[in-house]
Specification:
371 residues; mainly beta
């Protein structure tokens, strides 16, 4: 197999810019260039799996690279940082099916501001940036190795996109003892994020001239008594990423809890269409009305590296009166100090749209490697 670079026009511009920067460094003083390169932060994350799928008609098994991320960071000034994350995956469609693809997941400049009133740790990202909800959800559900988050997996919203995002904490940071076990923003009263995006996600070209606005407000009601408990409101509004520009709007709520021994999230959402433009009536391009909910839990009952996980997703098409997506995943994980994991899980997935339906049971071993 060989690498196929599927970076679109924006990506080409970005890569040319990066090449110009590297050329500039190479022709400057050797010591300066070496010092600059030494200051570049680097980390990676790969999901390597063995999967056995069982359906009514066919059983299959394979070794696979489910996903891989390689991230470079560079602090340009006191408040300005750039980040470049490459996304390694296997092409599942078209003539290139089976080939390893290398795409951009994030390519952004992040500028941090002074605190303003109750808002702390204020950041503005520009480029290929985070989107508010999935970024927060993955702070609670650290098991992306099993599958992407429900609203991302069903293409309702994406985890990253071309655009601009503002994020901040609400209140000063919690003390060290209260922050133990927390992965989300440690601000005392919660956090906020809002942005404007192309809408189709980081791996899709923009198909229309509309933009999607997405936001999240998270509140921590009991910062002293129960710091891990948070309540979130989130939503998005715009058009589906098709030339026909079908309507799209989504609103949801979530209750989450974080600690060193237990992480839980329960969320529900209603949506008119989706950001990809998949859930539309073919004859009229009118969006379907969707309703979904998801539950995730990770428990460490023995204070050991052995953790237990369970997740259930359900997306219902209210117009067609049918389940569009249903999934459960149960797993046992050996979690290392840097959150690298070896996971054994069993999952069941059912998908139905119009007259097409798929369902399968998967037995899987995943090694999540972080470095």
């Amino acid at each position: 197999m060989y690498f196929i670079y599927t970076l679109r026009s924006y990506h080409h511009i970005l890569l040319k810019s990066i090449c110009l920067v590297l050329l500039f460094l190479s022709i400057n003083h050797k010591g300066f260039a070496q010092s600059t390169l030494n200051d570049v932060g680097f980390n990676g994350q790969f999901f390597i799996s063995y999967e056995y799928d069982r359906t009514q008609d066919v059983n299959s098994n394979e070794f696979s690279i489910k996903r891989g991320y390689i991230t470079f960071r560079k602090q340009l000034k006191d408040r300005l940082e750039v980040r470049f994350t490459q996304d390694v995956t296997i092409d599942q469609q078209g003539d290139g099916a089976g080939d390893i693809e290398l795409r951009l997941k994030y390519a952004l400049a992040n500028y941090s501001f002074n605190d303003v009133g109750p808002f702390t740790s204020i950041n503005v990202e520009a480029g290929v940036v985070h989107r508010p909800w999935i970024d927060f959800e993955q702070d609670i559900n650290d098991y992306r190795a099993q599958n992407s988050m429900m609203l991302d997996q069903t293409n309702i919203i994406s985890s990253a996109d071309f655009g601009l995002q503002f994020s901040a904490g609400i209140g000063e940071e919690l003390d060290k003892a209260s922050r133990r076990g927390l992965n989300s923003n440690p601000a005392r009263y919660g956090s906020i994020a809002v942005g404007i995006y192309n809408g189709g996600g980081y791996s899709n070209l923009e198909q229309n001239s509309n933009k999607v606005i997405e936001g999240r407000l998270t509140l921590r009601p009991f910062p002293d008594q129960l710091a891990g408990l948070q309540f979130s409101l989130f939503g998005a509004h715009g058009k589906g990423n098709l030339s026909e520009s079908p309507d799209f709007s989504m609103a949801g709520t979530a209750l989450s809890f974080e600690s060193a021994r237990l992480n839980v999230m329960l969320q529900g959402a209603q949506s008119l269409g989706d950001s990809d433009g998949n859930f539309i009536i073919p004859e009229t391009n009118e969006p379907y009305k969707l309703r979904g909910w998801s539950f995730f839990s990770e428990a460490d009952p023995f204070g050991s590296p052995i953790h237990f996980t369970f997740r259930y997703d359900n997306l219902y098409n209210r117009d067609l009166n049918q389940i569009a997506h249903r999934q459960w995943i149960g797993g046992i994980a050996y979690v290392m100090e840097n959150r690298s994991k070896i996971i054994f899980d069993v999952s069941r997935q059912e998908n139905e749209f119009l007259n097409e339906s798929t369902e399968f049971t998967r037995f899987e071993v995943v090694a999540e490697i972080r470095f």
